[in-house]
Design goal:
The chain is built from seven helices and two strands. It is an all-alpha fold. The chain has one domain. Helix 6 packs antiparallel against helix 7.
């Protein structure tokens, strides 16, 4: 999954604030736990403070009982990448946006691979929907494929 490859650029700063060793993976359980409950945001510089707040607002806000370990943050992150692509950004622009908005480093090649895999999944959904006579789902999958491939 693409979320496993996402890394915080300033993970060592977050580690110092948390007071214990944190993995640099943005969606690792220990990192999510530290961000959602243990960080003293007053000690962050303005840019990192804003990036962490954006991260929390975009990916950690859910009402699941097991939040943030419920899987919602990873799903929201994947959805964000797909929406950015559907809005016309290429894989390099998406990587730059993620770095500026959330402080997340992600290789453009990993994003491209994720987008290609997503198209293959949508093609499978379209084919099965077509076989099952689910024409609305087939059209919906086709429109998403078209937006991802342009």
């Amino acid at each position: 999954m693409i979320a496993q490859k996402a890394r915080f650029r300033h993970s060592r700063k977050l580690e110092r604030l948390a007071g214990y060793r944190l993995p640099d993976q943005a969606f690792h359980g220990a990192t999510l736990e530290a961000i959602s409950s243990r960080l003293d945001f007053g000690r962050l510089d303005h840019t990192l403070h804003q990036q962490i707040l954006n991260f929390i607002h975009s990916f950690l806000r859910c009402t699941c009982r097991d939040a943030p370990m419920c899987g919602c943050p990873e799903k929201k992150f994947s959805r964000e990448i797909l929406e950015l692509r559907e809005n016309g950004l290429d894989h390099r622009q998406i990587a730059q946006y993620l770095q500026e908005e959330y402080g997340i480093d992600l290789y453009p090649a990993d994003i491209l691979s994720f987008l290609e895999d997503s198209v293959h999944v949508l093609e499978a959904i379209r084919d099965i929907a077509n076989l099952q006579g689910m024409h609305d789902l087939c059209k919906n999958a086709d429109s998403h494929i078209e937006l991802l491939e342009r």
